User: Fold these one by one.
Assistant:
Number 1:
Amino acid sequence: MLHLRIITPSDRTAAVVEVIENTVGTTHLAVLPGAARLPPGDIVLCDVAREAGDELLRGLRALGIDKDGSIAVENIDLSLSKRAEDAEEEAPGEGADAVLWEQLSEATHEESTLTVTYAAFMVLATMIAACGVVLDNAILIVGAMAVGPEFGPLAGVSTALVQRAPKLAARSLFALLVGFAVAIAATTVFSLCMDALGLFHQDMLDNPRPNTSFIWKPDPFSFVVALLAGVAGTLSLTSAKSGALVGVAISVTTVPAGANAAVALSYGEMGQMWGSAEQLLVNLGGIMLAGVLTLYGQKLLWHTQRDRWRRAGKA
């Protein structure tokens, strides 16, 4: 269940209440006239089944409540209410399969903005991965994958393409490209400093590295794994039962490929650098493609379930 707190201009309270009452899956409706001060107006509270949340939010936005008032949405972890159970039964589909597009857009907007913190995580993750590829240490590679924040912009691009939001797509691509450029540049300098300290050597890069050689040797499996990781990441982002996204793209080599490209560049190993760049592009493209296809699939599945429910209700 979701809990909505709505601040509405008083002249639209009746319309808001009507939208809520006409949305199947809503309950616990309460109206507090004149309770809001900034902005002034009434406060309307209600609970709604997750699978009906997107329809209700669209109805409220059609009234302009998001512009002249406020719509706050919270997940309800526990609701001891027979009315809530009935509302979830009445709503079409399953809550775990429902996608709240407004919530998804907001989440990807926050995660796909280029900030100092985002850039810092990118740089740190790439430096950790650089140590991993030089030492041929798979544990460090896994750690770098978990620290890397690049899935946020990748999800932002996928969401923007499905939602036809060019501003979100541009912001996400900017964060992705600039983030990797800064991380690779900083890691190249880091590699040179480690070499000056005697901790990195070119021989370490040239030696056989069975645990990490896949990073600069892309093959068809690189694209397949990127697709699978992209689907998993997108489902984790949209599912009501998802956990944290940390490590969700653990099997793909985006940050490690950028790190190997940086170290190879610092030693003039152009073959490894281009191989790493190819691996990076293959994985970025695979994740974004999988994200778009997954979101389109969820959208189609949800529309199909809702149409079946409506036809069953009319029968």
Note: The two ends are 27 Å apart (CA to CA).
Number 2:
Amino acid sequence: MSRRKPDWLKMRPRSGQSFTDIKSSLRERDLHTVCEEASCPNMGECWSGADGPGTATFMLMGERCSRGCNFCDVETGGMDPLDEREPERVAAAVAEIDLDYVVLTSVDRDDLPDQGASHFAETIRAIKRRHPSVLVEVLIPDFQGEPDLVRKIIDAGPDVIAHNVETVERLQWPVRDRRAGYEQSLGVLEQVDRESDVYTKTSIMLGLGEYDHEIYRTMADLREVGVDVVTLGQYLRPSPSHLDVEEYVHPQKFDTWRRVAEDELDFLYCASGPMVRSSYRAGELFVEAVLQDGKTVEEARQDARTASAGP
């Protein structure tokens, strides 16, 4: 049954010079963004940022995914060969758009021998070679839980590694492709926490039929494996062929979950609201929460290590 969207679900119009400049730069280099491919509701706000050129999340390895998650608007199948020039083209676009914080994600590429991990890692390195000061957040696939592939991403030196658990354990199927899974995603996040000092991040969609105690349990499980940052947003049905929305969660409830995440479960920070997505205001929130008092990322990581070690 289709539910009527409430008044609080309003998208900002896509406009402004920054929006136009980013779109032009992407088209010139034949690059894709998850903002466009997944029909993100915040594209107008992020790309038209008043305090700078805005933020765009680059989507690597094509615009078609090897998996068929029932919430996602990215097309499935018909995979193209990797473009070996893409890492350098992304790095060039970052320079032209003049970003200080870059988010990289990708489609799933189960069809490739290393599922695209090396291509992902080379894009991180290409950006860092050109712009050592740029902060790079990566939103990675699960790589079928293969530790060596996750390690390729860690070794490339990003500043934040995100992997989305997407929903509570009970709803992993039918929400996600059957090749994904709750424990597999927790394992990826736990490996990143165990093997690196990189900040870890994940995202949960609400409105799919989950119960409150399941949301709490999911966030507690995420903290147990060392996740630093969590975002919560409203699931929006991208087309009639996708899963129905079971509930439009009120903004006040999102605010309650933010307080639970930050004050009770001790996440570094939590972005929570109907229109929030995993990359929403990613750079701004990271800098506010982590790079306080003029600290560098390395200094902030050292502080976090010291705090976790205890007396």
Note: The chain is about 40% helix and 15% strand.
Number 3:
Amino acid sequence: MAKHSPAISAGTKRRLGRSAGDLATAATQQMETQYHWYRELPARERSWVSGVAHAGIADFIAWVRDDAPDTTSVFEAAPRELTRSITLAQTLDLVRSVVETVEAHVEELAATEEEVAPFRESVLRYSREVAFGAAHVYAQAAEQRGAWDARLEALVVDAALRGDVDPAIHSRAAALGWQGVQDICVIAGQVPRPAGRDIDVAAIVDGLRRAAARAGHPTLVAVQGADLLCLVGDVQDPAEVGSHLSSHFGRGPVVIGPVVPDLARASVSAVAALSGLRAAPAWPQAPRPCLASDLIAERTIAGDTQARDELLSAIWEPLTQAPTLRETIEVHLGEGHGLEATARALFVHVNTVRYRLTKVTSLIGFDPADPHDALTIRLALAHGRLLEGSSNNAP
């Protein structure tokens, strides 16, 4: 650290020491007059800032005497929470007030006229050193806060995935800026693995978060093993959001869970997204990203009982309520998707079959003409018949 000029005499140092209280008071009054942010601070934070101003004067006096090796000690007068209450720019305003106060009294503090110039030079050198010290303190605080926020975020995401969202989790989510967020979906994929380089989890998470923020969506992101999970809020079109963020995931499928009302229900979306991620290899032509609902057949095959129930509810139950349509689709799938073969089997005109299949698509939202949709319908019918058979055989 640069030393003060040796031209400052012992007399000037004594004058400076005796004026410490008055200088600190003057610096605080200057802040009160000059900076609205200081006037708007709560009483506790104002006392912290005032303490730093007094410490700044005392530290300058010690610095002039060569007794202060570390200008970051100025900020020990306030707790670490100060870096959350005021910004680095505001802290530099505080330093500037201290320096300007001392500089304004240089002529009356200097024991001789010859000491005015070197005394003023010492003030300017000190201002540079303490500004660097402030930047160092804020950099350390940001690093520690970043590590803490990452741990807190992982905790909140884990609780949301498990469906264990209590008031404490809501409070922690609020500390991350996730307060009152609605219309949430979970996007699941693999962690990117750059060739020849180590995985930089912080960079991956930051990139995903920035991309979502540009689209106006709050996010909570966590890495769990090889999985990268992102909770996205304020979602109106999950497919659009997934398309916007999918490039930030690694190779392989990216699956989007259904939109749920709030954080307490996020586990519903997460279960579907993760189930879809595990089942996606069964459909090599699956789009990227893919809605979990589009993988309902594969999820059912993989043993997801929730997906099976959804399949029955979406396809089997509506068709059971429309026996003619159910018979038509069963025959159509059994006849190899041929319209004429289906018409002959049912003793109806081919246009009647065409009309009924259109009604099937309208009723269940799956198109028998699409190969993947046809597989989904066939699987739903198979599960439904098994369920129906077990009910009929029940004593």
Note: Residues 10-144 form one domain.
Number 4:
Amino acid sequence: MESIKLDYSKVLSFVGEKEISAQQEKAIKALKSLKNGTCKGSDFLGWLDLPVQITENELERISSCTDRLREQTDVVVIIGIGGSYLGAKAVIEAMSGSFDVYSGTRVVFAGNNVSEDYLYELQAFLKDKKFGICVISKSGTTTEPAVAFRLLKDQLIEQEGVAVSRERIVAITDEKKGALRAMADKEEYETFVIPDNVGGRYSVLTPVGLLPVALAGLDIRSLVKGAVDMWSCMKESDAKLAVTYASVRNALYEKGYVIEITVNFNPKLHYVAEWWKQLYGESEGKESKGIFPASVDFTTDLHSMGQYIQEGRRNLFETVLSIEKTKYRVQVPCDAHDLDKLNYLAGKRVDEVNKMAELGTQLAHVEGGVPNMRVIIPELTEYYLGQLFYFYEMACAISGGILGVNAFDQPGVEAYKNNMFMLLGKPGYEKRS
């Protein structure tokens, strides 16, 4: 099978190979510290060899659980926030039809916000449905998912009774500790473990990501195989792909390009970019350092953000997720009257139009002072998403090492929580100011 590739040729007019090589030296040191476990945050390196540690027994147990839930339910609600839902959401959105009519189990998400309107509408939607719950949390006390779980658990019990609700709730949590573990043990929910040494944003290849993806009827073995093959490629090449990406983006950062925009020309990749934003934002944004991660959907956002990118402040660069092969073929038809003046496109595939929009945009933005890279994905499948996830995780860890930060913690996230708890009157937070 092919592999994803990186093309940074349209960066070289902004930073030279010498500048990139200087960052590569740092990247290689960062990679070495990852491999020997001496990097900052080394307690959270479980993702590093995770692809090859996933066993067929684990995959079978996930498949068995999801088969049971799919037989019993019309809808399964995935409750989680951050890394506890974004990876699964990315795969499901990428691999599902844009206008799918659900004849089997539908997967929806909750616990990623505390919008009262969203939760009311979700509860109303579930009122006449046979639904199940997959709740994902290491602690079980994170506010957003905990509120959603309390509401939906009560609704499920009210609609189906205690015995049925216990069969339809699955918990993905810590192996031994935490509120959700205690509740799962007490209520005898089926459980899957989030490994202690894998942080949330690196957890897409644990049951956190695999179980929801399987519930959606997608191929988790192919997803894992893609990650395994990328792991092998990284091992054989001293992580050349990840080292190069981390080095180029940090060379740009040193030149004042402090914002990276991930660009797609296929709306199915929208949540892949959302997953990427969390991975890089939480990993690098520390100690007044880090490249700010943003994303756009082209060509849609060319008619909104395109103006700023073309002519605004020159402190950003773009990384385009470029899919080589589409799933379907659609040709532009010929029109006898040609009032829209599109007959010059007649007979061309829509994907050719899209590819020329991609190239034309790249050329225009480079000419306008925006460095551009391309991550080239052979086609949009679970297999290549597995490759992409592992590539980005490795590159992120290396990039954090270049910056000298701990790429595996998120201490800044606690600030909003502490203020919220104080304002809501949570015991123990009254004296905070």
Note: The longest helix spans residues 382-403.
